[in-house]
Amino acid sequence: MEVMEDITNAKRGSKLVQDWTELTWDCLINIFSRLSMEERWNGPMLVCKTWMNLCNDPLLNSVFDLETWFLSSTETCNRWSFEFSEQVDSMLMSVVDRSKGGLKEIRVRHCTDQSLLYVAERCPNLELLWVKHCPNVTVESLQMIALKCTKIMELDMSSSYAISPQCLEMFGKNCKNLQVVKRNYVSPSEVSMFESYENYMENFPTFIIGNVYVHAIQSSMHQLKHLEVRYLTMTDKALASICKKCPKLEYLDLFGCPKLTMDGVINSTSTLKNLKELKMPEFTA
Fold first, then answer.
1. Of 183, 185, 239, which is closest to residue 211 (Cα–Cα)?
2. Which residues pair with 279 in a beta bridge?
3. SS3 for 231?
4. Is residue 285 part of a domain?
5. Residue 55 sits in which domain range?
6. Is residue 35 part of a domain?
7. What would the pLDDT profile of 105-129 be if each residue is shown by its tens digit?
8. Considering all CA atoms of the chain, what is the largest pairwise distance in Å, rounded to the nearest integer?
9. Between helices 165-174 and 139-148, what is the axis angle to 10°?
């Protein structure tokens, strides 16, 4: 681990710092901030009491990010168990306590309403929330976050099927700085792969009513700059409404939206003067 090697080199070669115990708290904070959360928990926290206390500093607990671990881990089956969700909840609530109200970013999968209700009551400064692939996250917790965490700027609720369009609308109405929204669905070709996981597809709609989500977006999210709605069954008319009501869009992902036509997409998005990147559906000939 490069950071740990730097500390060892400081011990051996530096004329200014002969021993790691002479490093200031701020210096150690700077060093440990370059480690991922998992690296801190599995390394420095186990070295000594001083380093454990340092890893509990709110400055090192403003971000809870498990996304890198989820993407790199090859073990997937256990993630869908109740026991695994309990562990994720416990980790998230632990960081909430350590942050002392300073938690600003959450990137998580497989958590439940329990930990998100805990977040809603204690994290008024939250700015980013990713709750992807969370079958046990419902309107109950996200409505509370929408009401109490009004500084949120980025929201990702992709592939979490117990969350309603009305919940999305609440975020738009209460979080006036919301600029990034991701509400992607699982590809129809991948549905069967997830059906074996208990409860995950329980709330998956047999028909994704895309225009209902469109209403939630266009009615309350006029400041949006980034929107992802993969595999949503919106119509050309609904897309035109989004483009009209959300003129600041710079990034728009429509991949897999089966009801859109090429003419409809081109005509609607031509009004977006700030659009920098557009991901089109794969149109059939």
1. 239
2. 253
3. coil
4. no
5. 1-60
6. yes
7. 999 999 999 999 999 999 999 999 9
8. 71
9. 10
Domain tally, the chain: 2
Looking at the domain assignment, is residue 284 inside a domain?
no
Query: What is the rounded CA–CA span in Å between residue 100 and residue 110?
Result: 23
Please say if the pLDDT value at position 234 is more than 80. Answer: yes
278, 252 contact by CB (below 8 A) = yes
Per-residue pLDDT, averaged over 212-226, amounts to: 89
Find, among 133, 87, 132, 151, the residue nearest to 114 by Cα.
87
Residues 116 and 245 in one domain: yes
**Residue 137 and residue 53 share a domain:** no
Give me 92's structure tokens: 């998230």
H/E stretch holding 133 reads none
Specify whether 31 is located in the same domain as 105.
Answer: no
Give burial (CB, 10 Å; 0-12/13-18/19+) of 26. exposed
Q: Can you give the length of the chain in residues?
A: 285
pTM here is 0.82
Q: Are strands 63-65 and 226-228 parallel, antiparallel or unpaired?
A: unpaired
